[in-house]
């Protein structure tokens, strides 16, 4: 359907009838045809033209920028009208396409890399001035004798003769295990990087006249 000048009462009436069963001037989505008719109408239709009023208020709810982005559509303003093309973008928008938004990336990357290197160097210098943390462990060993006739005092004396860099002997006590037999429970602190617990156990077991076995009762990192 084509209608005439929508600035006239007759044209608006024809538009109102046209929109009675349509949401938009052309097709099922808003298009440039709606924009063209909207601009031709120019003002809000009277309440006596409910379909035209509903359509006008709907188109007016979009911003001009949104309306410019709509696709072309067939305008029924005049019989045989050609599809209405989308409005050309503003010159500023066209000019934006020529702007190299990433032109300074290389300079920024170089500056960022320089700052990162400086920070890493400062961190390394600061870290090198700090004393290195020494990892240590606190261990309680259960040293078991052969029988109740084993001289426990001599056993402890022999155990404490073991000297290793990073080994420090601590308190000890005798703990009953049954049948009149006691075990030697002795504590020591070791530096993890210097003392092997397995090697320490082997050295204690070398006192085979006194020691039957050595077990770890407790092991805690300090």
From TrEMBL:
InterPro entries the UniProt entry points to: Arc1-like_N, eEF-1beta-like_sf, EF-1_beta_acid_region_euk, EF1B_bsu/dsu, EF1B_bsu/dsu_GNE, Glutathione-S-Trfase_C_sf, Transl_elong_EF1B/ribsomal_bS6, Transl_elong_EF1B_B/D_CS
GO MF annotations, alphabetized: guanyl-nucleotide exchange factor activity; translation elongation factor activity
List the biased-composition ranges (Acidic residues). Answer: 93-110
Q: Which SUPFAM superfamilies match?
A: eEF-1beta-like, GST C-terminal domain-like
Where does the record place the Elongation factor 1 beta central acidic region eukaryote domain?
Answer: 101-127
CC terms in the record's Gene Ontology section: cytosol; eukaryotic translation elongation factor 1 complex
Keyword line: Elongation factor, Protein biosynthesis
Per the database record, which ranges form the Translation elongation factor EF1B beta/delta subunit guanine nucleotide exchange domain?
136-222
CDD domains in UniProt: EF1B, GST_C_eEF1b_like
Write down a Pfam family by its short name: Arc1p_N_like
Matching PROSITE patterns: EF1BD_1 (PS00824), EF1BD_2 (PS00825)
Show the segment(s) annotated as Disordered: 79-110
Task: Give the similarity note.
Answer: Belongs to the EF-1-beta/EF-1-delta family.
Q: What is this protein called?
A: Elongation factor 1-beta
What organism does the UniProt record list as the source?
Euphydryas editha (Edith's checkerspot)
